[in-house]
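Handoff note, outgoing to incoming analyst
You'll be picking up this chain. Sequence as last confirmed:
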Amino acid sequence: MDARSVANLPLNGRNFLGFVFLAPGVTLAPTAAAGVGPSIGGQRGMNSYLLDGADNNQTFLGGPLGGLGGSDRYQLSQEAVQEFQVNINAYSAELGRAGAGVVSVITKSGTNEIHGSLFWYFRDRALNATSLISKNLGQVKEPFHVHQFGGAVGGPIRKNKLFFFANYDGQRRTEFNVTFLNLPSGFNLSSDPIVAGFQQRALDYLTPRAASWIRGFNQDIYMAKMDWQITSAHRLSWRWNRQRFDGVNLEQTGVPNSLEHTGDSEINSDMLAVFLTSTLSNGMVNVARFSHLLNNEPGRSNSPNPEANISEGGQLVLTVRPTSPKVASLCLPLAGPPSALAKIPADGANGQTRSPSVGAATL
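Most recent structure output, in case you need it:
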């Protein structure tokens, strides 16, 4: 896929890795990380990602560094992509280290003429319909705002010898996470007044924690590249790119998660790559590459308290983070007596639970 196709094909969210789904034999599939990624030839998590021929894999969760195809986070701006290639099978040995496919991306370089571009994309809830879930819950139209903006410029420093290219891409995105008490159809309080009293206390505690909340995708991407045509046979290039992603309340998302059970997700990555391309003869070319990656993806929590999963009839109702054993009692089998509190280990000074997970509850 050349630069013209990359620039003109429609792509929701401007994540260049979305182009991989245009290749035959590639489908969406769940991944170890949040979101979805490409399944090539029926295989998941066995792909390799190259950026200018250098390794660009996230080795902990798998997938490309900085994000996944189909997500709202990405390491490289679509504006900086020159070529995009998906190798499904029967690729050469130089592209190894993959059990499924190899995705290779080549970045733009400067030329003898100065070229540049600016872009800004905007989406807002005023242009959207109210979702079916919000209608059923009687809620107003959910917040939704997207701004994607940036630019690129490239040209000569010294014609025919030294060239530069620079790019910036920014994203500010706000979405709504719909949350509600996922009670089974036909749920009613127990006919036993004692049990019903415990159930009502639990519902009074859980209802305000089942309020919907806002999540955000804020990202800044930078890239700088220089090319030096040393001689007609040797070309030296170097590239530096940086990603700073701040995912507000993205650690846990979905209907059964309360705001106190989520937190911010971050991606901080830097990559430096140097390439020397040498034409040794009419039939032989050598490329020497060096790359250095720094990647840090901390996840933060809105609450330091242990997790509690509230269930009814084997169905998850809501996940919260209770503040003390007394409150955590609402997260234990409520059909039983209060003596269940004795089973919760406590930190004597402040009464907070020690265990990382309180347990499951039954309304």
